[in-house]
Amino acid sequence: MVRMERFERLAAAVLTCFCVPGMAQQLPLAPGAQVTTLSAAPGTWSEPGVAVNLLNPQQVVVVFQHSAQAAYSRDAGHTWTLASGVTPPEYRVSGDVSVVFDNKGHAILGCIAFDRLGAFNYWAKGATRNGIFLKRSLDGGSTWEQQLRTVIAQPTAPGIPFEDKPYLVADTSKSRFAGNLYVGWTRWTLADSQMLFSRSTDDGVTWSQPIEIARDRGLPRDDNGALEGFDGAVGPDGTVYAVWSERDHIELTESHNGGQSFSRARDAIATAPVMFAIQGMERANGFPQIAIDPRGGNKGGPLYIAWSDYRNGEIDIFVSASTDHARHWGPPVKVNDDPVHDAADHFFQWLAVDPVSGAVNVVFYDRRQEPRSSKQIVVLARSTDGGRTFSNYAWTATPFDSDDVFMGDYLALAAWGNRVYGAWTYREGTEKKTSVQVGVADFSQPSTPAK
Q1: Which residue has the higher pLDDT, 25 or 306?
Q2: Confidence band (pLDDT; 50, 70, 90) for 6?
Q3: CATH, domain 6-442, list 2.120.10.10, 3.40.50.300, 1.10.150.170, 2.60.120.10
Q4: Rounded to an integer, what distance in angstroms lies between the CA atom of residue 392 and that of residue 10?
Q5: Other C-beta atoms within 10 Å of 84: how many?
C-alpha cells in the first residue's frame, strides 16, 4: 500500500469563517469529513473522476491525470491505495480521464492519449496521433488489464482531427440496454468542433462508429463558441440523456434505443458564457453535468443539470430541475449561498444525485473567503428538497492558492447511501506543483455547526 498523506476527520474545533466586505458567513464542515491526498508526490496532477460500485458500495475508484492514474478503496473511502499498471505505455501523454462502474461491477477508465498537442487552443492544427481509449479493472480497481481498448484512434497525418474531453457513462439500469457503455466527446478539426458519441454493447471491448449528436458544429478553438463539455445520464428505462455547452445554451438530446440514434438536439437552458477568466487561473469553464434520481417508476424521478456562469458578475453555480423527463426545465437555482454581487467566484462544479436518498450534491471551488485573491476552498452543497434549496458545507478548511499552476478543467463527485465522494486538484504552499485529493462526507452523521 502506498503511504498517503491523510487529513483524518477535520477537527471539529476547526471552524471556517468567510469574510467579505459587508458580510461574514460561516460554513459548517461537511459531516464526517475526511480528506486524503492520493498522488504519491506533488506533480502535474489534475482532472479527477470518481465512481462507486453499485453492486458493492464499499468499492470506490478515483482516476486522475496525467498520465492516467487510479486509486481504489475497499472500505467506502476510509483508506486508499494507488493502483499500478494504469498508464497506457503506448503514448507519451494520457489524460482527460473519467471512470464508471458498469452493471457487472467492473471499473472502466476512459481517457485521451496522444504524443503532442497541436497549436495553443487550436488542437487540430499540427496534431499528432491521438485517440480515445479505455482500460478495465475486473476487481474493483485493484488491478487493470494491460490491453488498451480503442474507442477511436487517429494516426499522425496532415489535417487529422484531435479527439478531446471524452466522458464515460454506464447503463446500470434494469432495462433492455443494461450493461451498455457510452462515451461522448469533442472532435476538433481545422474548420470546426463537433460533438460525437459512441457506444459499446460488449463491456467496452468494441465500440460503434461515432455519430454526431449536435444540430450544428461549433468554432474550431477550445474557447467560447465551441461544442464542449459532454455529460450524460441514463434513466431506469434505459433512456440516455446527453448535454453539452453550445455558445449561450446548454444543449440536450435523448436516445431511446440504447444510443443507436438521438432526438434532434435542442436548447435546454440559456446561460451566460461558460468559458471565463478566473484570477490566477490558466483557464476555467462552467460546462454542464446532468444527473437523474432513478427512483420514481419506470422513467425515474427528476432530472438535474448543473453549470456555472457569470450572469451575476461573479461566477456562480446553478442547478435547474426537470420533473417531466427533460421536456421542461425549472428556473436556475443558485447553489452557492453567499450573497449575489459579493465578487466571489465559484467554479468547476460537478453534480451527483444519490440513487438511494435522491439528495442532489454539487462540489465546487469557492472563493467567498478571499474574493480578491486566487485562493479557494472546496465546498460541497446538498439539496434534499428536489434542488429548490441547497445547504453549503466546507470540505476543506484552509484556502489554497491556484496562481500560476494548471488546475485542470473539472472536479469529480459521486454519491451512494448518504455518503458523498469528491475529488479535486489541490496545491499546497507556493510550489508550482499540484496533488489530487479525495474527500468523503457522511450525511448519516451530524455536521459540525459554525459558531
Answers
A1: 306
A2: very low
A3: 2.120.10.10
A4: 16
A5: 12
